[in-house]
């Protein structure tokens, strides 16, 4: 699907257009960080410009699942005396 040039991180799409892999990865990491730290779904929806909360949840659900497990452990630790 993509042709990768390891030296400069430029990728070629099937249609012959190019994108820089580092920029794309940095953007994704930034959004993932926003989900992990903010975790206010409605606020994240507005930041990302998604029309509905369902779109936001479909895109970032994998990040939120990991956070749920961490939150459960934190709650369990707080409840054990």
Automatic annotation (TrEMBL):
Keyword Transport attributed: no
GO MF assignments: DNA binding
Keyword Transcription listed: no
Keywords for this protein: DNA recombination
GO-annotated biological processes: DNA integration; DNA recombination
Identification of the protein by name: Tyr recombinase domain-containing protein
Record organism: Coprococcus comes ATCC 27758
Lineage: Bacteria, Bacillati, Bacillota, Clostridia, Lachnospirales
């Amino acid at each position: 699907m993509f042709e990768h040039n390891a030296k400069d991180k430029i990728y070629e799409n099937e249609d012959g257009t190019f994108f820089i892999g580092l920029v794309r990865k940095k953007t994704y990491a930034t959004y993932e960080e926003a989900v992990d730290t903010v975790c206010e779904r409605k606020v994240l929806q507005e930041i990302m410009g998604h029309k509905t909360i369902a779109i936001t949840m479909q895109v970032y659900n994998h990040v939120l699942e990991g956070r749920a497990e961490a939150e459960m452990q934190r709650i369990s630790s707080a409840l054990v005396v």
